[in-house]
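Look over this entry.
=====
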Amino acid sequence: MEPNNPQPPVFNPGQQQPPQAPQRQQPMPQYPYPYQAPIRELPQMSFIDAIKTCFAKYADFSGRARRSEFWWWQLFQVICSWALSFILMFLGTKTMLAGSLLLSLALLCPLLAVQTRRLHDTGRSGIIVGITAFFYLVMQALAVKVYWPLMDLAKSDPMAFADAIQESVGPFGIALGLVALVYSILMFILLIFNLQDSDRNENKYGPSPKYQ
């Protein structure tokens, strides 16, 4: 008896290869949105870099500025104002106020520029910056008109200075109060905008300075 061990059939090259079942191709996965590369967040701008950038863009109102650049510049202005006031306080009240006013005017242009770029970074126009600057200048002019003649009393007779301020409330004092109120509202709106994060995508003002 032959052993019950079937051998595999030997394929003859002259014969046709037995048909094979067609292989089904796997469909390509369909994505609802086109592929986008992952967004990378750049390191935060340092204090020194922010100051250098704002001075380099002293009157540059185009482009965008991230939060770190804006807030470092705000800190720089506060430090300069405090330091100057401390130095000039020994020279009299009028000298101190005059020096603080001149410093504010000298740093006003880069402040408006970086504020405009900060709004651009959130996709907003900078027109509110111009409106706020107008009310700021009017408020400063009214403050000088109302309080400057009374500054000599601030050091010689503080009680008389306080009484003179109360008596000086007239048309200019009322206008100063109204302008200061509008200015405060505009500054509060700008504060909300400045706290917002950068627009992750490129907008009409340029590419994002924070995300790439």
